[in-house]
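User: Some background: our group keeps a shared notebook of sequences we're curious about, and every so often someone picks one and asks for a predicted structure to add to the entry. Today it's my turn. The entry only has the sequence so far, pasted here. Could you supply the structure so I can complete it?
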Amino acid sequence: MQASLATADPRLVATAYTLLQQGRLGEAEAVCRNALAGAPRDGAAVHLLGLIRKEAGDLAGGERLMRESIALAPDRAEFRANLGNLLRRLGRLQEAETVYREALARDVRHRPSRFGLALTLHDLGRLTEAEAECSTLVRDNPRDAASWTVLGGVLRDQQRLPEAETAYRQALTAEPGYLLAHHNLGALLSQMERAEEALAALDRAAAGGLRGRELAFNRGRALLQLYRLDEAEAAFAEAVALDPSDCEAQLNLARLRYMRGDPAFARDIVAAAAASRDNARLQMLLADVLRRAGDLQSSEALLRDLIARFGPAPEFRSSLASVLHESGRLREAETEALEAAAALPDHPEVIEGLVVILLARGKAEDAMPFVRRQRMRQPNEQRWIAYEATSARLLGLDLYRELYDYDRLVQVYDLEPPPGWSSMEELNRALLRTLTERHRFNVHPLDQSLRYGSQTARSLIAEPDPVIQALLQAFAGPIATYMERVGTDPSHPLKSRNRGKARFVGCWSVQLRREGFHVNHVHPEGWISSAYYVSVPQEVRDDTLRSGWIKFGETRFPVPGATPERVVQPRAGRLVMFPSYMWHGTVPIHGPEPRTTVAFDAVPDDE
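Assistant: Of course. Here's the predicted structure to add to the notebook entry:
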């Protein structure tokens, strides 16, 4: 009886703990087992052995010992916190949440348990609850850099980016050398396209010794936004080398190489997919990249191999349907798309793939129920408004003219010079010099509407250049005039959101070269979209050829009866504004003289 109540020699336990901290796991385990030999039911020693086994890679053994220690000492909150940490590591998040809450029920002020709970709720996507736990942590200890950093991540995932920035900066005020906060701040600033600040924060993290795939990836993104293309490619390549299965890093590396004109732009994805044939995400990524690059035959072969090896998963069939559609094999495409949609009726991308095929086959009546359901689920999603308008057009419904009221909703403005500029000609000359410096890519983006030209690497909103900022200032008057002319109507997807003010959510420049054009598209992130002409070639004056003219009403892929209904002639200094859901593209230019434009998307200011 006395042996069962004995406690382990505290000197041996302390020695084992020190050895664990030093990473000398074999010695730590030997000392810990020696301590347990005389006191096998000492909860602290059992728990310590569990920590040692966990660090040695025996996660199951570590979990068993931790649970045993909790049974021996049920009121020790730190034992439950450590078990929760292990369960998080194993991806058993619901169990981890339960254990952390049990710990807090025994000690409401146990910070490691609350911190672990905040992380777990974040991982579970329960952001409001995670924010509440983080707020408790930083209220109780405003000098807790780690908790401020987790709060920053929670706010970032809620798209509350300025608040996230404040949280990260609070972390660095509390602990200026906290490397994770430097890194996360840099990643956030890169997301906000404040590239200069982003790179400085990321480089501080690297200088402090932080390493890893995420740091390399985020440095690549910031360097790309600064047009330091060699360095950006090297950073993305480093991220891929550290984790070849990382699809985000692979895609960004391939995109950059493609725009730089590298014929083997997808070589790292090809190598990773060949080395990991059972990694379906990598195989799907490669198939998608090949499709976007126009290699439909290779993309189809890869997707059919995936179906043969893994079975007809709806994601595979939906991707195959897209390839077949672009190959002009509409009947086969519809079969695959219908099967995918039957399996995933609530998946927007799968349903979109089916809708575009049905419209291409002239089956607007079949497409409309799918469109209407998505419109109810995502009423402000611009793509679904565009598909509803196209379906209504083919069905002869009045709704089409309500949505595509060209006379009212497509407006043209010849800009007045902003303060400090004598004329738009003067501003455009300065703009052309500034923008041409940023058009450094040899090939159009892999996944945009542009063909035979280049696009700037980051939003012009974030550019500090005074010439660019002057142009943005010149847009303010026409935007206000456009919104006034559009009016309000609670039943209309454009007019119902017209509440008097708008803000930019994206702004970029495109330079079309010989044979350059935009395929027909809409702007999913916008509400009001635009095209501003900085410089245009002489050939746009020919109102028969209409080279470079913007056209409205024609869909991305050919749809019977959906031809252009409105065209606008470009002219330097001219701004064209229209709803973001309105199909638009351009007629190709043919000569050597480029066409340079700036475009923006705006949304209601209160959204």
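Suggested note for the entry: Residues 520 and 555 are 6 Å apart (CA to CA). The two ends are 69 Å apart (CA to CA).
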